[in-house]
Amino acid sequence: MRPIIKILEEDMKEKVVLEAMEILEEIGFFVENNEAVDILQNAGINVDTETQKAFIPRDLVKKSLKTAPQSISLYNREGDLVSELGGDNICFDPGSAALNVLDKETNEIRAAITKDFVDFTKVVDQLEHIHAQSTAITCSDVPEKISDRYRLLIALIYSKKPIVTGTFVKESFEVMKDMLVTVRGSEEELRRKPLAIFDACPSPPLKWSDLTCQSIIDCAKYGIPSEFVSMPMTGATAPVTILGSIVQHAAETLAGLVITQIVSPGAPVIWGGSPAAFDMRKGTMYLASVDTILMDLGYVEIGKYLNLPTHAYLGMSDAKILDSQAGFETGMGSLLAGIKGVNMISGAGMMNFESTQSIQKVVIDNEIAGMTYKFVKGITQRDEPIAKNLLKEFDKKTHLLSHDHTLKWFREELYLPSTVVDRSTNEEWINKGRKSTGQRTKERVEKLLSKYPGAALEKDDIENLIDIMKYEKIDFHKLLNL
Amino acid sequence: MVILIIEKEYKEAILNGNISLAESLASKAINDNLEINLVIDQFSEAIREAGDLFEEGEFFLPELMRSAEAMKAAMTILEPKIMENKEDRYLGKVVIGTIEGDIHDIGKTLVAAIMSAEGFEVFDLGADVPVDKFIDKAEEVGAQLICISALLTTTMVGQKRLIDNLKERKIRNKYKILIGGAPVSRKWVEEIGADGSAENAVSAVKLAKKLLE
Fold it and tell me: Which residues of A touch B66 (CB under 8 A)?
């Protein structure tokens, strides 16, 4: 059976959703975007034009919940199904939009450039347990105005995997959508086989900014999945109680959901988030804390209660180097997210309050993802009787190591890690140079980079994408070494 | 062309750990009166490939062990022919076992299987073997190599006792001694005056070959 974890009692889930609906009805939420205001008003919703607050009746929320799809299928560049985001299925993708990288040569955090994201994408493309890419790194060597779409360009050229992305400026949506259409073939095909998910983060408390409103409206029009990433911070921009923050998360997320379902009933949306436990000593937003994990699993349970696909920023660390904190925070978050059945688990590679990506860590986190997949499969009975017949044979044998039964099942029954995980004896470890996780991972990264088969996208498609990207006098061929 | 296909079969038998195929290929070689050395070379090449695959991380212990067993099965059938030709294909004679007080068997059995597969004549005494039995067997068969396994820190001293015993009998230099087991370190090898230890079965066999060169 699949291992399970439960966070909230059934009647508590009902209570959370009910209170979130009351909040939207009585307190309302802030809408910064004019198109969104029009859309809401045309749907008969009361919007106070002075305060830009919209008040949503609960019946409309309930109606919107009925039209939002229960699952979303995600396809790779080739059109093959990668993951069905629904039920308790899981899929991992790297944490997105890091401004910095942890340099694998110097072990220092520095601003990211094009090569960092190109290499990162090439490595993630080959990781067997991380099934989606994200536009994980924001490159500082292109103008800020195009840095969102530039990440998508790189991800599309260097990887076949579906992509979790998002806009930083409203104008980018059109460009990014055109790139996706180019790769997929047509708008209709893109709608039928989603290749990318767009993240949209409401601002706590209860605010949908101009940019994020636009993103979810545009996505809804084209059938591109929107991933709502509500981010309450306990005791700072949200109630300090974890349950209070979960209610706020639900209200913010339901507001987004209603907008999309008015624009296009049936528009694909994901009940996601990145809440944070506010650190009461440092004033930092602690994203990998045990409280954050609890809050994430709690709101995901609400999403599941509402029959929606779910997402969480889990399986990452706030450490600054590849130390044991980096490992234990990531391990705890990933495994728990896996058991909960969070459909899209974002965070691999990420460190330092979602600001720093590490090409080494993403390789380590791939192992954690692999172990998580293994764990959630649970324990299966393979034989009848379970063990008796094999144990009988021990009369004749001293071991089962080369037994047919062992050969048949060992790869399925036991997780076989890559060289990143050390399982040597102390002596062997010493003989092989006393290598740390970081050193072993650096070697694997270098091996993967040298093994990368080359951009699989057709040359014509690359040219088309670069044509769509056209911006001032930037030479994308030169930047990307094409 | 025919040879090519057969070569592929030898490889398949060993790398897939297909014991019955390995046996039937060996029997066929004898019935068809094939040049026995060439046949053994084919099998040997396959078992070396299994070792390489293991070291590269592609193969795991069950597969390595099974390949070694398939090799051993073929060699058992070919053995009378080798004797008949009076050709000594063996790389050397090895006495191997787990020291007394210790019933851990797997590591030792794996080393024995790979050694045998690679062309050593292996006398596997099993587990919980008294010191005297190791020495008596080695003297009896005229072994060049003694391999002593110990998985427990408490039984590891048996490895030292065996070497001390050889010294007392003034026959230490007749043998190369390899020791193995999780607690064995380089320091321990030096301390008790063994000739070496290795980190896995494949490198143990490589080391054995080197020592007997």
Answer: 402, 407
Q: Which residue has the tokens 């896995």?
A: B200
d(CA A331, CA A96): 18
CA Rg value for chain B: 18
Cβ of A427 within 8 Å of Cβ of B185? The answer is: yes
pLDDT digits (tens, 9 = 90+) for A432-471: 899 999 999 999 999 999 999 987 788 999 999 999 999 9
For B66, which of A407, A416, A431 is closest by C-beta distance?
A407
B199–A431 C-beta distance less than 8 A: yes
Q: What is the set of domains in chain A, with CATH numbers?
A: 66-377 (3.20.20.480)
pLDDT at A331: 98
Closest alpha carbon to A54 in A232, A271, A228, A256: A256
Residues 6+ apart with CB under 8 A from A70: A86, A307, A308, A309
What interface predicted TM-score (ipTM) does this complex get? 0.80
Write phi, then psi, for A351 (nearest 5 degrees).
-140, 175
Q: Assign domain B2-84 to its CATH architecture.
A: Orthogonal Bundle (1.10)
Contacts of B181 in chain A (CB under 8 A): none
Which chain B residue's Cα is nearest to A410? B62
CA atoms within 13 Å, Cβ hemisphere of A357: 30
Cβ atoms of residues A165 and A462 within 8 Å? no
In chain B, domain spans:
2-84, 92-211
- Phi, psi values for residue B167, rounded to 5°: -65, -45
Phi, psi for residue A47 in degrees, rounded to 5: -120, 125
CATH 1.10.260.40 assigned to B92-211: no
Whether A423 contacts chain B with CB within 8 A = no
Closest CB to A398: pick one of B105, B182, B200: B105
β-strands A350-351, A91-94 pairing: unpaired
Specify the pLDDT at position B184: 86
Question: Encoding tokens for residue B59?
Answer: 């193969």
- Across chain B, which distance is largest between two alpha carbons, in Å? 59
The single-letter DSSP state of residue A238 is B
- Judging contacts by C-beta atoms under 8 Å, the chain B residues touching residue A403 are 62
In three state form, how does the secondary structure of A99-114 look?
CEEECCCCCCEEECCH
CB atoms within 10 A of CB B212: 14
User: pLDDT value at position A456?
Assistant: 72
- Chain A positions in Cβ-Cβ contact with residue B61 (cut-off 8 Å): 401
pLDDT of res. B183? 82
Contacts of B200 in chain A (CB under 8 A): 428
- Quick check: B119 pLDDT over 90? no
Helix axes A58-67, A10-26, angle to 10 degrees: 120
Task: For A59-112, write each residue's pLDDT tens digit.
Answer: 999 999 999 999 999 999 999 999 999 999 999 999 999 999 999 999 999 999
Q: Report how far residue A273's alpha carbon sits from residue A202's, in angstroms, rounded to the nearest whole number.
A: 10
Q: Test A425 with B69 for CB contact under 8 angstroms.
A: no
Residues of chain A with Cβ-Cβ distance to B60 below 8 Å are 410-411, 416
Q: Which of residues 190-229 of A touch B (CB under 8 A)?
A: none
Nearest CA to CA, how far is B86 from chain A (Å)? 33
Residues written for chain A: 482
User: How many CB pairs lie under 8 A apart between chains A and B?
Assistant: 45
| Per-residue pLDDT tens over the stretch A122-159 | 999 999 999 999 999 999 999 999 999 999 999 999 99
Contact call for A398 and B62, based on CB within 8 A: no
* CB-closest option in A402, A427, A431 to B65: A402
Shortest distance, CA B175 to any CA of chain A (angstroms): 24
Q: Which helix (H) or strand (E) holds B112?
A: helix B106-118
pLDDT at B91: 87
